[in-house]
């Protein structure tokens, strides 16, 4: 059994009349990055806001490091750092001023505040901008400041709500690598509506749709369940479909235009290698292999179908 840092029990939350999330049960492992995957409006922010004590749930409980958030919110919140979707930055403060304010809010003892600010700035690569006003920082650096405030009190669990949203591709890579570094020492929960982002970063994944968890397991198990089982190959000297079917793992072949084939596969891990070998052997002159990635909607449709099969 893996150790957990937090547990969400039978969580349901209603805004006005409609339920945003319904009966969420979720154990968060105490190490590594767990991805919370779901399309817009699926219920990710609601779940994260409840987990971090920013929203009081209609029903259910959150236990963080053994502390019940309802019974002892102050103590439970010490164990958690949160970067909400709208980073809570004061743009007229400098990085130092803002982090000092956050450290005080977090009740860090006065004698330890300077050291905590320095450590958070170093970790997030923002020490050289200490005196700069937050309003004069790029989106990527603002996100780093948001992450710095989340780790300033050194909590064992960090929750980041779509931290790469709105960043340019370079900034996304930088923030991802920072998240990886932060996760070396603690648990991180990270939400996104982008499947490849979760696949790149996370060890565990929870998928939420329509306010309910539709999948919860390791990333490897997720990939096995939903794995891309089609690929496109371009062979300059196109063979007959039957010849391709002789490669173990190819279940069906669809001929496309321009000497391209769509191959439906059994998910065999070394299939690409076998195709390259067969191409060399038969001189098919392989030009390209492209793995077709399923969209979030397709993954959801597949998971829903599998669930209804289990229920039937
Ligand atoms: N303050 C609110 N008042 C009323 N309804 C809300 C409120 N916040 C969220 N909702 C609704 O609750 C549902 C879940 O929203 P939530 O923000 O948790 O989803 P999300 O997965 O984080 O989506 P996004 O990625 O778009 O933020 C949606 O139907 C949303 O419209």
From TrEMBL:
Highest taxon of the lineage: Bacteria
GO molecular function, one term: ATP hydrolysis activity
Xref: InterPro entries: AAA+_ATPase (IPR003593), ABC_transporter-like_ATP-bd (IPR003439), P-loop_NTPase (IPR027417)
Domain ABC transporter intervals: 6-235
Entry-linked SMART domains: AAA
Annotated SUPFAM superfamilies: P-loop containing nucleoside triphosphate hydrolases
Keyword Zinc-finger: no
A Pfam family that the UniProt record links to this protein: ABC_tran
Entries under Gene3D superfamilies matching the protein: P-loop containing nucleotide triphosphate hydrolases (3.40.50.300)
UniProt entry keywords in alphabetical sequence: ATP-binding, Nucleotide-binding, Transport
PROSITE patterns: ABC_TRANSPORTER_2 (PS50893)
UniProt protein name: ABC-2 type transport system ATP-binding protein
Species this protein is from: Pseudobacter ginsenosidimutans
Lineage: Bacteria, Pseudomonadati, Bacteroidota, Chitinophagia, Chitinophagales
